[in-house]
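Write out the bound-state structure for 5-O-phosphono-beta-D-ribofuranose.
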Amino acid sequence: MPDAPKPLVGIVMGSKSDLPVMKECVELLKRFGIPHEVSIISAHRTPGVAREYAMGARTRGLELMIAGAGMAAHLPGVLASWTTLPIIGVPLASGALNGVDALYAIVQMPPGIPVATVAIGSAGARNAACLAAQILGLKHPAIAQAYEDYRREMAHSALPAGTFEV
Ligand code: RP5
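---
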């Protein structure tokens, strides 16, 4: 049996409670045929693991990381501080502020260490996979094609089948 392709994307989330939403990101990456790995790493509960993971990512062949977190949501920024790979941050609605806290924490990175921030929750999780496909598609033609197919299918499903009365 041939070896599984090496992951290009590392999906990281702060808690297993983030998994139901981040699964939507994983499903889309699968659809685009993007090899990936999924980890649960907390920037505040396991900061050493977060550092090791980000520092070793490029050497292990990852080309970008997607990080989902809720509440103070420092995980994407912490990963970004330990690597020069692009980081996509997904704010999750897990606290009393419904994800607005996480959105601000992730999007408001000081200059020099960006995190490409997508929408709160499930729309963001899916858009993180789309953005990853767009970035990786610059180098990997099969991924660019898979994403174009997805966009075409989306356009078709938005078209009405015929005339209809409202
Ligand atoms: C963050 O705190 C996680 O990303 C999660 O969204 C939130 C709550 O974590 P749990 O208390 O459910 O583990 O670190």
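---
The CA atoms of residues 137 and 144 lie 4 Å apart.
The chain has a mean pLDDT of 95.
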